[in-house]
TrEMBL record:
<protein>
    <recommendedName>
        <fullName>ER-bound oxygenase mpaB/mpaB'/Rubber oxygenase catalytic domain-containing protein</fullName>
    </recommendedName>
</protein>
<dbReference type="GO" id="GO:0016491">
    <property type="term" value="F:oxidoreductase activity"/>
</dbReference>
<feature type="domain" description="ER-bound oxygenase mpaB/mpaB'/Rubber oxygenase catalytic">
    <location>
        <begin position="37"/>
        <end position="271"/>
    </location>
</feature>
<dbReference type="InterPro" id="IPR018713">
    <property type="entry name" value="MPAB/Lcp_cat_dom"/>
</dbReference>
<dbReference type="Pfam" id="PF09995">
    <property type="entry name" value="MPAB_Lcp_cat"/>
</dbReference>
Length: 294
């Protein structure tokens, strides 16, 4: 079980916002001095989001809960944008916005149930085990992808990121003390979880869907299809070797090297784009509030 942490409130950078203070200078749960803002300032993390979905699909009960309660095949891009908006709000929104987003998602999850197709058991999709799996695979995907893309993060930075992200875990209803707060604790958590993971029918179906989803704006028969498939393949290859082996593919070091080279090139390409294409309004508003709070 992850060790206890006293870092459940905001750190120094994020503590500039207390209830009742001017929201215009509210830097939210993390703030400009946090590792979280450094990591999530990277536009390449879109790839990390897809990577996390591949990992999450390997938990049989987690993916069954998604399949039985979601219309992701009908409107995949709408779901993706809602998820990105939630993550962006938690990371870069004001304290009130982050807490409101957490309340909304807890309310949605509390109403959802799923059925284990092997045992027939009905279960809540907001069980701590499932919430923890989604949280850990998500934050590990973010920080691991950022590092492999070339963002300079020390081992202490990575540990700091995981500890900071316990605040996000609390928003979805988890006890922060039960959430891995260091890289070593994340590694130990993955080792404990691996015997429970499997390539179920739902996981395989999700794999194929993520690799070849319907593209919006009639882009399916354009070069955009090749671009997306390349990005999805990179996201898949960025998974740990053990996860790729569960999917029935090789977990070779050469695959890791190829994925790292690809994501580094993608980061350089994205950083060369004009700012308006790199970051959305939630990020830009956060930077404006941080300037006021400085």
């Amino acid at each position: 079980m992850p060790g206890k942490s006293s870092d459940l409130g905001r750190g120094r950078a994020g503590r500039g916002t207390l209830d009742g203070m001017d929201e215009a200078a509210d830097v939210g749960l993390f703030g400009p001095g946090s590792v979280t803002w450094r990591v999530h300032g990277e536009p390449v993390l879109w790839v990390a989001g897809v990577r996390s979905l591949f990992l999450q699909a390997l938990h049989p009960r987690a993916i069954a809960g998604v399949v039985q309660n979601s219309s992701y095949k009908v409107e995949p891009w709408g779901r993706l944008m809602r998820t990105a908006d939630y993550v962006g709000t938690v990371i870069f929104g004001t304290t009130a916005q982050a807490r409101a987003a957490g309340r909304r998602i807890r309310g949605v999850h509390a109403r959802m149930r799923a059925t284990d197709r092997h045992t027939g058991e009905t279960y809540r999709i907001d069980e701590p085990e499932l919430l923890r799996w989604v949280h850990v695979t998500e934050v590990e995907s973010f920080v691991s992808t950022a590092r492999r893309a070339g963002l300079a993060l020390s081992a202490a930075d990575v540990d700091g990121y995981y500890t900071e992200q316990r605040r996000a875990a609390k928003l979805v209803g988890l006890d922060p003390d039960t959430v891995p707060g260091t890289a070593a604790e994340v590694d130990a958590y993955y080792r404990r979880m691996r015997p429970q993971l499997a390539l179920t029918r739902e996981a395989l179906d999700t794999l194929f869907f993520l690799m070849v989803p319907p593209l919006p704006w009639h882009l399916g028969l354009t070069p955009a299809r090749l671009v997306y498939t390349g990005l999805a393949a990179t996201a898949f290859s960025l998974q740990p070797g053990w996860a790729r082996r569960v999917y029935g593919t090789l977990g070779l070091p050469t695959t890791d090297l190829s994925a790292s080279v690809s994501v580094r090139a993608l980061r350089l390409t994205m950083r060369a784009l004009p700012e308006r294409f790199q970051h959305g309004p939630i990020y830009r508003e956060a930077m404006a509030r941080a300037a006021l709070a400085a």
